[in-house]
Here is the input.
Amino acid sequence: MKKTPYTVIGAGHGGKAMAAHLALMEFPTTLYNRTPERVAAIKELGGIELDGGEYGPRGFGRLECVTSNMAEALEKAEMIMVVVPSSAHADIAKAAAPHLRDGQVIVLHPGRTCGTLEFVKVLRENGCTADVTVAEAETFIYASRSDGPAQARIFRIKEAVPLAALPATRTRLVLDRIREAYPQFIDGGNVLQTGLNNMGAIFHPALTLLNAGWIEATHGDYQFYIDGVTPSVARVLEVLDRERVTVAASLGIRARTALEWLKMAYDTDGENLHEAIHNQPGYYGIKAPPTLNHRYIFEDVPMSLVPIASLGQHYGVSVRGMDSIIRLACIVHRTDYWRRGRTVDRLGLDKLSVTELTTYVTEGIMAT
Here is the structure.
């Protein structure tokens, strides 16, 4: 039986692992990266050597095509896997818009918060009339890294990853198409639900900024979650988490709390967030970022924290904690993340009531 052709957009840690794994599963796989030098070794060898550890996939994943030409990358693809930082989603949508065709499925790995909403808006603004389906994963399915120019390593493959399409009525279509390669994906409700369950928005920026002095003094030479999460820092994380859950509730969504997420992901309990984080053995040994110029701020603030806070402000939820962390990030990085980020205005959602927004994400009908 003919297998579905895949194109993986992005040749970083995640993209290389996904492309190699798809190839080893015998799916015709194309790898795209905008910088030719980044994929020159892969192109020369014709594929990627994958080490999946003791229980994971391993071997040489031979690729059908390695390219920096978007038209060539999308020509044969039926499934398009976007594995780039969320700050690049808009650029990828703009580059892909002229080359997409009816029936193709695009999945953002992951969407962070409002990634699919942004991607669809950019496609529309750039004249894309193809009937494509855009979806997002709540988190990245692999724990992986790049081991060399044409080498990748997978440490773990998650057992269940929520996924949602825009509109949600197309989620089943995406799950049916992707199941042959990834049975781990499950119905994530809608793209607001996957985006508002984004735990990185709560943990990453605040923990980095509240440890700014320690990071700069030690270049990250301490345990990020163990030494960095003191009782006071944990109380700030709890406030941010309550705000996120309240924003979700204002949109009719039951979001998981951080404590629920720790229980689900790691089977870790605690009376409070400080205790639960310190009860998670997997956090021991994880070092802090070596610098404040890190994706935990420059990606997670504008693409995760800003959209949650913006939704809260727009629909009447107090998000003073989130706003304080965003403003600290603006000061530290000397930039305006409110202006650069995924705000309700920039996403074109500012005229929608809660009911109209819900209708849009579930049925794809935008009020005019």
